[in-house]
Amino acid sequence: MRRALTAVLGAATLLLAVLVAGAPPASAASTLKEAAAAKGIVFGTAAAQSHMGESAYVSTLNREFNQLTPENEMKWETTEPSRNSFNYGAADQLVGHAQSQGMAVRGHTLVWHSQLPDWVEGISSRTELLDVMRNHISNVAGHFRGDIDYWDVVNEAFQDGSGARRDTVFQRVIGDDYIEEAFRAARAADPGAELCYNDYNIDGRNAKSDAVYAMVQDFKRRGVPIDCVGLQAHLIVGSLPGDIQANIQRFADLGVNVYITELDIRMQTPPNSQKLAQQASDYRAVTSACVAVAACKGITVWGVTDKYSWVPDVFEGEGAALLFDDDYNKKPAYDATLEALGGDPGDPDDPGDGSVTCTYTRTAQWNNGFNGQVTITAGSSAVSSWTAVLTMNSGQDIQALWNGTPTRNGNVVTVKPAGWNSNLAAGASASFGFTASAPNGNVSDPALACSTP
Ligand code: G3I
């Protein structure tokens, strides 16, 4: 959300100004997004609409991240499954969620050889494919115009090893200039979004990143509209390129921003303490490399939890690549990343604020209204406060709410504790209830997310 992002960065600037002015330093941030904001960058994750019904998934997403990348929902096979017939349902829901939480959004991705429908693969005329590609970009980027902070305009167009162009239908049928034509179409469709080229194995210097570097240099020289490069950073524990920071810096020196767009660091499973410690050190190194270069504006991990990572599906016997384990527990890599962002993970033995989960139950309904109850439950450690966010459906309006303190913003109702039900011991629960009107008989369940504090 462009405006929200500006607000976050504005707050970060204010914080820095206060520090420079010599005021006592505020206490160090305890979440990734707060620590990143204090550094003037975003910390995001890929998210999948199919998991948004799981309260621990949503509460972790909302608590830790201020940028969201739809994992699959904006890809060509989903947005234009048949020619000139567009589908934005799941992507709209994710963008709406991001906006309700003040998260920036990365659009992923407009032109990619994978998850591309067969009808595109079958085109053999340059004029026709150029037309189809421009039409796709103009519709998709046009639909989300104003809502996307950065677009991955073209994804994975180069081969590993040689740095030659990847053999795709776009390369074969249109030729080398398909990439610049895609960027021109994206700029026309959404002039306010940053336009990125995104790829994997370009995190350090090698033949492939040299080829991308040469392309960006050429685009800048000729005025092709490109604003940023995305280093995906799908990495392996203990095998990081040693020159990530230098590589980020050389792209920055071309006058583009750099983003770490799909960070995960996989290992042979099962994890053990030694592998988790190495992973923590690797996450710290990648995060520090970004923080050290002013033009590196954000880090995005490729998923909220190991439970839903793409890695085990593709690399047999590998996984555990993310910051939260299958049960949403913070891994050593989480603490290392937070520290590299200048945050403070706190004392792991201190039963401070942990995480909460929440559930919704419709307890009564009648012709034009219903009662609902929300129960918030602390995880394995105590929490000192909680927040529940209800997104009401069309026509639904909360008329009374008890055992909680509501604030309404349109159809989004944020509920804080009543006071006496703020502190929850590990595993303990608090509940609040409400009565809502439903004049059109729509008693369907509101969306629910909860977090601490
Ligand atoms: O939605 C169907 C489901 O209906 C079906 O039952 C199931 C059976 O396999 O497949 C589901 O689709 C899967 C889809 O993810 C949604 O979960 C596809 O098979 C699966 O191939 C697809 O994988 C995605 C992959 O891109 C495709 O290339 C991953 O989730 C996604 O994380 C991954 O992301 C890519 C980035 O876009 C680009 N960079 C690399 C990165 C990792 O591969």
From TrEMBL:
Domain GH10, residue spans: 26-340
Catalytic residues in the record: E262 (nucleophile)
Keywords: Carbohydrate metabolism, Glycosidase, Hydrolase, Polysaccharide degradation, Signal, Xylan degradation
Secretion signal, residue range per the UniProt entry: 1-28
Domain spans labelled CBM2: 349-453
Entries under Gene3D superfamilies matching the protein: 2.60.40.290, Glycosidases
A single GO molecular function term of this UniProt record: endo-1,4-beta-xylanase activity
Catalytic class of the enzyme: hydrolase
Domain of life from the UniProt record: Bacteria
Family (UniProt): Belongs to the glycosyl hydrolase 10 (cellulase F) family.
Protein name per Swiss-Prot or TrEMBL: Beta-xylanase
Organism: Actinomadura livida
